[in-house]
Amino acid sequence: MSQKQVFPRIRSIYADHYVKGSHRAKHTPRVNRPIRPRVIAWAGPTAFMRDRWYERDSWYKARIQKPEIVPRLHLIDPDRIVETFEERTKVFKAKENDIGFKKRPESVTIERDEEKLEKLARKKQLEIDLDLLKFDHLKIYDHYNIFEDLFMPGVYFNNTQKFGVKYGDTVVVKRGNLLTAADATSEPQIEIESLGSNAYNTVLMLNMDGDGFTAERPNDFDKSQLLHWCIANISDGQKNGETIVPYLPPTPYKGTGYHRIAFILFRHKEKIDFSDIQLKGDHLADRVFRLNRFFKQHENEITPSALNFSQIKYDESVDKTLHQIGMKSPRFFYEWNEPLKPKQIEFPKKAMPFNHYLDMYRPPELVKREMFKKKLERLVHQGKCEKAEYPDIFYPENKKKLPVWQHKELMRENIGSDKYAALYLKNGYKNAVEQAAATEEEEYESFKAQRKETSV
Q1: Which among 140, 213, 392, 451 is most buried, taking Cβ atoms within 10 Å?
Q2: Between residues 377 and 434, which one has the greater pLDDT?
Q3: How far apart are CA 95 and CA 115, in angstroms?
Q4: Which residues are CB-neighbours of 422 under 8 A, at least 6 positions away?
Q5: How many domains does the chain have?
Q6: Whole-number mean pLDDT of the chain?
Q7: Which residues, in sequence order, are bridge partners of residue 427?
């Protein structure tokens, strides 16, 4: 009889907690059991690296979808942004250098119904009456960046002297109101408050956005303007003085938008010789002026006491004004970039509905002709061509019976988006922006033709 080797059994910690009849619970459980390997296609850690697309030679890289190729964009590193856009736009630029007189005490208080104003503001019906604002209210000037563009950042002064500018009997310059060049063809009338002292006043009229002759602008401390008018040494209580620079109406060029026309009132004790700013010629470039240099030169003699401005845009009177001084009226046009479209290939990387794909590569003339034909059909059969009140009034029915692309195309046509905007525009162009650009382009071509005829 062979002797059988007996191994001692180790009692498990779970031996007291087992189901009756269970033999395994009384003994040590199996540990460190090797896991059965599985056959998998493991690409390794390099498959998840950021530069994995640069080499496509390995077998596993062909099984990973290649990302879409997009054009280069301006990338913003979020780690380098300290403040959000809202924080940056709400930053209050501190006013540090007060170059004017001491602020006058407030004598008039405006009574207002806060509850009524709140209701109007919620309904978007609240309008600000500029006549009720205090004449030394500076927030409107900060909004249009007047002080910084006239002098330098951080410089300001308070309106301590009432100062009014009026063209004719009705047109008044009032804290950035909108005017046309035809309103300012004649010399304005000025009203200066008399402070009861033997002092003098000087008025400068500047176009803050009209300098198109200074190519280099080194820094923010040397900004330039156009000097349209200068009346100096006006006695206190009077309206007339020495005309240093004769009046020239504002000349906002076509295509440059609104120009800020500022009227600055300086006060000084004695008469000053301003012959150094007199014009040397009749050209508009001879009126290039730098108010910051002018103020630094006479800083010990003059002090700004009032400021007013308006916004003036182009009309036909600008051409007459420039022709009178022997200049041609320039035209400015926007150069619109062509829409970005990928190269046409047999199998594009990004799926796209076939109707959008065809519209992208079809000649624009064919698309315009198709929209023009559709518009004529509507005018003949319906007598009008107007947008539908709803994108699709039979949405549930059309959603079932029409293909997806055709249903979307129907809603685009009803709301007038993309190419269908031509159905509801006056001249039938793709959209309002193209219509304005095409009008400007036609004017530009006619302007070049006239210029060519005159040169011949």
Answers
A1: 392
A2: 377
A3: 33
A4: 368, 371, 372, 375, 428, 429, 430, 431
A5: 2
A6: 78
A7: none
Residues 235 and 184 in one domain: yes
Q: Are residues 185 and 235 in the same domain?
A: yes
Residue 30: inside a domain, yes or no?
no
- Give the DSSP per-residue string, 53-122: TS---STGGGGSPPPPP--------GGG--S-HHHHHTPPPPP-EE-SPPPPPP-------HHHHHHHHH
Instruction: Find residue 265's DSSP bridge partners.
Output: 203, 306
Q: What is the CA radius of gyration of the chain?
A: 38
Residues 320 and 365 in one domain: no
| Triad 414, 415, 419: Cα angle to 5° | 90
Would you state the pLDDT for residue 312? Answer: 94
For 141, other C-beta atoms within 10 Å of its C-beta total 21
> Residue 203: is its pLDDT beyond 90?
yes
The pLDDT value recorded for residue 24 is: 55
Of 193-207, 275-289, 291-305, 339-353, the one with minimum mean pLDDT is 339-353
Q: Which of 34, 36, 23, 28 is nearest to 12 (CA)?
A: 28
Burial zone of 166 (CB within 10 Å; 0-12 exposed, 13-18 middle, 19+ buried): middle
Domain final position from 276, 308, 324: 324
Stretch among 7-11, 73-77, 306-310, 324-328 having the lowest mean pLDDT: 7-11
Buried b (16+ CB within 10 A) or exposed e, 183-193: bbbeebebebb
Phi first, then psi: give them for residue 118, nearest 5 degrees: -65, -40
Matching residue, tokens 């020495």: 242
The residue range of the domain holding 104 is 92-324
Nearest to 102 by CA among 161, 152, 146: 161
- What does the alpha-carbon distance between residue 219 and residue 404 come to, in Å, rounded to a whole number? 57
User: How far apart are the two ends of the chain, measured CA to CA in Å?
Assistant: 134
Measure the CA–CA gap between 389 and 31, rounded to whole angstroms. 74
Length reported for the chain: 456
